[in-house]
Write a structure and sequence with these properties.
The protein has 24 helices and 19 strands. The chain has about 700 residues and is an alpha+beta fold. Strands 12-11-10-6-5-17-18-19 form an eight-stranded antiparallel sheet, covered by helices on one side. Strands 8-9-13-14-16 form a five-stranded antiparallel sheet, with helices on one face. It has a four-stranded parallel sheet with strand order 2-1-3-4. Helix 15 packs parallel to helix 17.
């Protein structure tokens, strides 16, 4: 279950420390000799830790498994109700409330502490008593500072937190690395494979917040036939397998695959585990990161439930700013190397991630809170440098150039009363005939390969005016710029994409409304010169500074600029019309949305770290546009060649005035005009537009 293999004596010691800590925390609940604002904080947070301990005790003793479904729901709600809905306005996890009650200096620190202590929910459910214990002891250490030290300052609290993170970096980083790298970690896998999935009580074994999304999704999937489940799982796993074939990689050398999903899809995941096992792959299934040292902003990478409060997630996306410094970064990298080195024989055979995304949640436009922790410029650079280093480590230990991936999406019940109809329509979209699209897309590629540029113009409220420079082909009979992408790694079918030349790529990319990485962007505008972003803005907030900070933090990932890593034309008009029919277009995940119009990806190319791997289209032509001017420096300065992000921004068909290939003599061949395909060989795609 845990990488922490303790001796009998160490186990006894941990149990003793845990019990002593909880005894002391229970005493705190009755202590009044501490100033009033802090007293309320420590009483409430102590009460939360007692609640988690009660649940942990039921789990250890087996009483938890005997609870009824309604009792499990009540326990689950009790763990999360403090940050749900309007309750969050009066929670110390809310930095605004914490600063109001405790003052700005103490409020930020103690809001962070409470949020970090909420990880004890995970430690209780996974029976990770060593980790649970050190967090209880951190709480007691901070309490001791503010109760007994007459001259304590916020700096003392901050120093105690920073020392805790540095001193325990090996434990915290090693546990996370074990979860994400070793198939032997089996917490979620045991739930999926051993539970009676017809009894929804299994959902409460994770410890995640369980909403109606998880309950209704699991209930709906339980109503599907075995044949339907097998077909869904086969679409998912065969796409992963086809990715290896398409890239000329040998899947038989691989022994593990990472499955990521939202809780509620266990019946499909169980079959996927079986399918992958038939391919010789053991599933690695890990929870989305839950503590500041391991999180990447608000993103959830790994299995997870619905968020109890997205504003809570957003408020704490940069909590690492409390203690991030160069020494910690170096320590984290040392620990990562030290743990991965002895298991390199396992990680070298990693095949890649198989991701089952969901869509349908209400669009979220976050509040920009000055009380939330942010990164200073030095820390922003430390973060980008750290992820660059981690990527290099992954390349070494996980052999990422010889791995692949697949992604598929399904709706959740929050999408509305048409959930079941949308689910059925999504299954149809995910299983469209690849051969039909392959032929149509080849017609588009044949024209684009003759061009020097691609011109993209928006219409109506869309102000896009872009010129995308294409790589020169030395031998057009054997080479191509665009990949003919059907339903393999990216499900559903439907796009042609390339890595543009940066020099000569210029213009304005504008989208009136787009939803990226769980965040809504209103009137997003990016200005490009020589393929790099030189300016950006949106209208999420009233002032430009807040808007620019929002984009820099969440779209540029704190880089000063990003290149245009990909240009593509989506061809899945069936998916587009599904979005129109059910009025869910803004809620479609990027995986589907990118197939419903042209899209532009900022950051790395689609061939990042595998540029030297030759890739061919079904017609036998080699796709030569795998590099750009930035990635070409990877041999001499790999850290500057990659940005460790890739975000697709799609323009829907109804916002397109023109997409044309611009020839070297200045003439143009239109592909899309006034929202319809006009190129010969592509007109079949318009049939979906005409369906009502």
């Amino acid at each position: 279950m845990s990488y922490l293999k303790l001796s009998e004596d160490e186990n006894v010691e941990i149990i003793e420390r845990y019990n002593l800590a909880m005894d002391r925390i229970r005493e705190i609940m009755n202590e009044e000799d501490i100033r009033i604002p802090l007293r309320d904080y420590f009483h409430k947070v102590g009460g939360f830790l007692v609640l988690v301990d009660n649940v942990a005790g039921m789990i250890r003793e087996g009483a938890y498994d005997r609870l009824t479904l309604e009792e499990l729901k009540a326990v689950n709600r009790s763990l999360y109700e403090d940050i749900m809905g309007d309750n969050y306005d009066y929670s110390y996890a809310n930095p605004t409330y914490a600063c109001k009650m405790l003052g700005n200096k103490y409020g930020k620190l103690l809001s962070f502490l409470y949020t970090e202590l909420r990880a004890t929910i995970v430690y209780a459910y996974e029976k990770l008593m060593p980790l649970h214990t050190i967090y209880l002891e951190l709480f007691l250490q901070i309490y001791g500072l503010v109760r007994w030290e007459d001259d304590f300052t916020p700096k003392d609290i901050k120093r105690a937190i920073a020392d805790f993170m540095y001193d325990n970096c090996d434990i915290l980083t090693n546990q996370r690395t074990y979860e994400t790298a070793d198939p032997g970690y089996s917490f979620a896998k045991d739930i999926i494979m051993e539970s009676d999935l017809t009894d929804l009580a299994y959902l409460y074994r994770y410890g995640d917040y369980i909403s109606d999304n998880e309950l209704k999704t699991a209930e709906y999937i339980n109503g599907l036939s075995d044949e339907q489940i097998n077909d869904m799982a086969a679409t998912f796993t065969s796409g992963f397998e086809r990715g290896f074939v398409a890239n000329g990689l040998d899947l038989s050398k691989k022994t593990s695959v990472n499955i990521r999903y939202q809780i509620g899809f266990e019946r499909v995941v169980r079959q996927a585990i079986s399918n992958f096992k038939d391919m010789g792959l053991e599933a690695i299934i890990y929870r989305a990161a839950y503590i500041a040292i391991n999180k990447r902003q608000h993103l959830k990478i790994g299995y997870h439930g619905s968020s109890p409060n997205k504003q809570y997630d957003y408020d704490h996306r940069f909590d690492i700013g409390i203690f991030l410094n160069k020494a910690l970064n170096n320590r984290r990298l040392e620990v990562l190397h030290a743990y991965l080195k002895p298991i390199k024989h396992i990680t070298q055979n990693y095949a890649g991630p198989a991701v089952m995304e969901v869509f349908g949640e209400e669009l979220f436009s976050p509040k920009d809170k000055p009380e939330a922790i942010s990164l200073n410029k030095r820390q922003q650079k430390l973060m980008t440098d750290y992820y660059s280093d981690v990527r290099m480590i992954s390349k070494e230990y996980f052999n990422t150039p010889e791995s692949s991936f697949t992604i598929i999406s399904y709706p959740i019940s929050e999408i509305g009363p048409d959930f079941e109809a949308i689910f059925d329509a999504t299954v149809r979209v995910n299983t469209l005939d690849s051969e039909v699209y392959e032929r149509i897309q080849q017609c588009i590629i044949d024209v684009l390969d003759k061009g020097e540029y691609v011109k993209i113009l928006g219409k109506g409220m869309n102000r896009t005016d872009m010129m995308v420079k294409l790589q020169p082909l030395k031998d057009p009979d054997k080479e191509t710029n665009f990949e003919n992408c059907v339903a393999d790694v990216n499900i559903p079918v439907g796009e042609v994409f390339t890595s543009p030349m940066l020099t000569g790529t210029r213009g304005v990319l504008h989208v009136p409304l787009v939803y990226l990485n769980d965040l809504a962007y209103h009137d997003l505008e990016l200005v490009f010169e020589d393929g790099r972003i030189i300016d950006y803005n949106c209208k999420n907030y009233e002032d430009d500074k807040s808007n620019k900070n929002f984009i820099k933090e969440n779209l540029l990932y704190n880089h000063e600029t990003l290149p245009l890593g990909e240009f593509a034309i989506g061809t899945n008009t069936t998916a587009y019309m599904m979005g129109k029919k059910f009025d869910i277009a803004p809620k479609l995940p990027i995986l589907i949305a990118e197939k419903t119009g042209p899209h532009f990806a900022i950051g790395d190319t689609c061939y990042s770290m595998r540029e030297d791997l030759k890739v061919y289209n079904p017609d036998g032509k080699e796709i030569i546009a795998r590099d750009n001017e930035i990635t070409l420096i990877r041999e001499t300065d790999p850290k500057k060649a990659y940005f460790n992000c890739h975000t697709d921004i799609t323009l829907p068909y109804d916002e397109i005035k023109e997409i044309s290939a611009v020839m070297h003599d200045g003439s143009t061949i239109p592909i899309i005009r006034d929202s319809r395909f006009v190129l010969e060989g592509t007109l079949l795609l318009n049939e979906a537009f005409d369906e009502r």
